[in-house]
Each structure stands twice: as structure tokens, then as C-alpha cells.
Design brief:
Helix content is 23%, strand content 26%. It is an alpha/beta fold. It binds flavin-adenine dinucleotide (FAD) and NADPH dihydro-nicotinamide-adenine-dinucleotide phosphate (NDP).
Length: 325
């Protein structure tokens, strides 16, 4: 069994930024990048998308997988040990903390590693609806992130739809009015869940229409390889009536699932399962355990904010280790 001063769990921008800072501080971090953890390749959510246009430093943009590959190389350059395994279990009841991987998880198995400090950077997954047509038109009209994908040319001056009734749906719909000809929000209930201020703004917006008691039932589009979405079947759940509407974009805002199962019951989570951190820091409710990236951020959920919080986690962990020595 090996011991490390600090272990990072995750492989997105938060994990790699933490790794770059900790390895440059000569703390020899070990980073478990996962083996298809939660169904996502090592590198995290950005490996599932194409062009990233809003990460500073790349004026021409670059591919999501390429950006993560660069971050991984930068972590390794300063000496981070990267292990392609998924952490399956943690014992945080005493220090040093104990970590098991999927390979050595079993009733009698010893932990794979112990650590003085652990950084949780396991990310989150946007919920999908599994509509007919969703697989075919995913990223060819359908997206789960308006801020990420809204500026793509296929949405310019076109009718766009958002599904959801929360703050994200309201915020994304209003953001999309910069690009689309009109934005319609489909809300399954007869009211919005969004905060009053956001709901009022959305309902008053000239380029937005909210359709209550409405759900999408199918995504329609071009019948060819890489064909684009062109329409949507929408059902009124009161009358049962269905119609086909023109739609060139569909944005899901039906919530995210933070990958916090590993630490459930061990550190404080909020009502939606996000790790609670002390505001302005990466400190969790348990000394020596730090959290960064989307697993602790339900508000911004961007590559750059994840990277920023990864830096905070590294500096917080470094201070913790120095003070415990
Ligand atoms: P994530 O990227 O969520 O990665 C965490 C990864 O850690 C997991 O995917 C998994 O591989 C690994 N992991 C999880 N559990 C374990 C475990 N137990 N053991 C080991 N490894 C584990 N943001 C932007 O700023 N610009 C964009 O253009 C943009 N486009 C996007 C497009 C799409 C389709 C999506 C889904 C998101 C997009 N985002 C974009 C958001 C951005 O991807 C996220 O905010 C960011 O990736 C979150 O980073 P993170 O470090 O929290 O972890
Ligand atoms: P929420 O969980 O608040 O809202 C999700 C919405 O999606 C709900 O309206 C829900 O409907 C709907 N929904 C869920 N599943 C389905 C489905 N299968 N079909 C149709 N609709 C569905 O998530 P958000 O991402 O909006 O917000 C998460 C948190 O982040 C909240 O605390 C929010 O306040 C916060 N936030 C704040 C912002 C701000 O202050 N500007 C911006 C963004 C987020 P129903 O209501 O019927 O359950």
C-alpha cells in the first residue's frame, strides 16, 4: 500500500489545475483519473464536446478533448502521478485517509493508498431526457449547456427551445435570446420553479415564451449522417394534444447530478447532493478533504470556474499539509 501527502480524485479542469499547482509545489500528488467513471472518459465532461471557445488563452478555440489532453500533459510535466483507475470507496474516519479503487475493492482487501489530504474533483453530469431522436441530434441541435454552445452558428436567428422550469432554464433561455430568433421554454408543470426575480424576468422577456404543462416527446431532423435537428414534437399534458414545431435548438435545463456518492454521509452535502464548501474556499465539513469543480458548484459549472476552484483546493491542501507536519 502506498502513501501520498495528497490524492486528487477526478480528471476534469478542476482536478488537473489542482495537480499542476500541487506538483509545482513539490507535493508529489497522485491523481486518479477514473476508468469511465460515471460513464465519462478520463478528462471529464469536456471530452464529450467539440469546440471550446470561452476558455481564455485559445483565441481560435480548441477541441474539448484536446484541451483536456493539454491539461493532463501539464500535470504530468511537473511530476503528478496519474493512475487510470476509479476510486470506489473512501474511509475518511481517521487520518491518514484510505482509498480503494475498483480493482482492489472487496471485503478483505487492503486500501490501494492512504493520504493525508484528499481533493474531490469528480464533477457532475447533466441530466438527459432520453427522448426519441436525442441520441441522433445530441450536439447537432441538442445541448445541455446554453452558455457553452449557444453561440454556435446553427442557432443564429433560429427558433430555439429550452426544457425546464428552474433558474437554469430561465437563465439559459434569456441568454439564448442573443442568438435565436425566439426562445420557447417548455415547463411540465403549471408554474415555474425558478426564483421570483428570474421567473418575472423570463415571463416579461419579449423574445421568450413560456409554455406551461408542456413536454417534448420527440426530436425531429435531417435524415442523413450528422443531420441537424429541425423540429420538435410538443405535447400539452392537460389536453393531450400534440403538435410539431420548428426548432433548430433544444437546450436541456433539467438539473445536474453531482458525482458525490463517494463522500455521501462523510462530508456535508446540500439538498441536491452537491458538496458544501466554506464560501470562498474549497474546505468541506471534514478537515483534510477539499472539493472543487462542478461537484461543489451548482451555479456556474464552467471549465474556467472549475479550474479556478482547483487552484483554490491545491492552495488549501498545501496549507493544511504544512500545518499538520
Ligand atoms: P468534470 O469535467 O465533470 O470531470 C470529472 C471527471 O472525474 C469525471 O468525468 C470522471 O472522468 C472523473 N471521475 C469521477 N468520479 C471519479 C472517481 N470516483 N474516481 C476517479 N475519477 C473519477 N464549459 C466551458 O467552460 N466551456 C464550454 O464550452 C463547455 N462546453 C461543455 C459542453 C458539454 C457537452 C458539457 C457536458 C459541458 C461543457 N462545459 C463547458 C462545462 C464543463 O465541461 C464543466 O464545467 C467542467 O468540465 C467541470 O469540470 P470538473 O473538473 O468539475 O470535472
Ligand atoms: P432545478 O432542479 O432547480 O430545476 C430543474 C427543472 O427541470 C425543474 O423545473 C424541473 O421541473 C425540470 N425537470 C426535471 N426533470 C424534468 C423532466 N424529465 N421533464 C421536464 N422537466 C423536468 O435545477 P436548476 O439547474 O435550474 O437549478 C439548480 C440550482 O442552481 C437551484 O438551486 C437554482 O436556484 C440554482 N441556480 C441559480 C441561478 C441563479 O441564481 N441565477 C442560475 C442557475 C441555477 P419541476 O419543477 O416540475 O420539478
Amino acid at each position: 500500500m502506498s502513501h501520498s501527502k495528497v490524492v486528487i480524485i477526478g480528471s476534469g479542469p478542476a482536478a488537473h489545475t489542482a495537480a499542476i499547482y500541487l506538483s509545482r509545489a513539490e507535493l508529489q500528488p497522485v491523481l486518479y483519473e477514473g476508468m469511465l467513471a460515471n460513464g465519462t472518459a478520463a478528462g471529464g465532461q469536456l471530452t464529450t464536446t467539440t469546440e471550446i471557445e470561452n476558455f481564455p488563452g485559445f483565441p481560435a478555440g480548441l477541441g474539448g478533448a484536446e484541451l483536456m489532453d493539454n491539461m493532463r500533459k501539464q500535470s504530468e510535466r511537473f511530476g503528478t502521478e496519474i493512475i487510470t483507475e476509479t476510486i470506489s470507496k473512501l474511509d475518511l474516519s481517521e487520518r491518514p485517509f484510505k482509498l480503494w479503487t475498483e480493482w482492489n475493492d472487496g471485503p478483505d482487501d487492503k486500501p490501494a493508498r492512504t493520504a493525508d489530504a484528499v481533493i474531490i474533483a469528480t464533477g457532475a453530469n447533466a441530466r438527459r431526457l432520453n427522448l426519441p431522436g436525442e441520441e441522433k441530434f445530441w450536439q447537432n441541435g441538442i445541448s445541455a449547456c446554453a452558455v457553452c454552445d449557444g453561440a454556435v452558428p446553427i442557432f443564429r436567428n433560429k427558433p430555439l427551445y429550452v426544457i425546464g422550469g428552474g433558474d437554469s432554464a430561465a437563465e439559459e433561455a434569456m441568454f439564448l435570446t442573443k442568438y435565436g430568433s425566439h426562445v420557447t421554454v417548455l415547463v411540465r408543470k403549471d408554474k415555474l420553479r425558478a426564483s421570483k426575480v428570474m421567473a418575472d424576468r423570463l415571463l416579461a422577456h419579449k423574445k421568450c415564451t413560456v409554455r406551461f404543462n408542456s413536454v417534448a416527446t420527440e426530436v425531429l431532423g435531417e435524415d442523413k449522417p450528422n443531420g441537424l435537428m429541425t423540429g420538435l414534437r410538443v405535447k400539452d399534458i392537460i389536453s393531450g394534444a400534440e403538435e410539431t414545431v420548428d426548432a433548430n435548438g433544444l437546450f436541456y435545463a433539467v438539473g445536474h447530478d453531482p458525482a458525490s456518492a463517494l463522500v455521501k454521509g462523510k462530508v456535508d452535502l446540500d439538498e441536491d447532493g452537491y458538496i458544501v464548501t466554506v464560501p470562498g474556499s474549497s474546505l468541506t465539513s471534514l478537515p483534510g478533504v477539499f472539493a472543487c469543480g462542478d461537484v461543489q458548484d451548482k451555479r456556474y459549472r464552467q471549465a474556467i470556474t472549475s479550474a479556478g476552484s482547483g487552484c483554490m483546493a491545491a492552495l488549501d491542501a498545501e496549507k493544511f499539509i504544512a500545518e499538520s507536519e
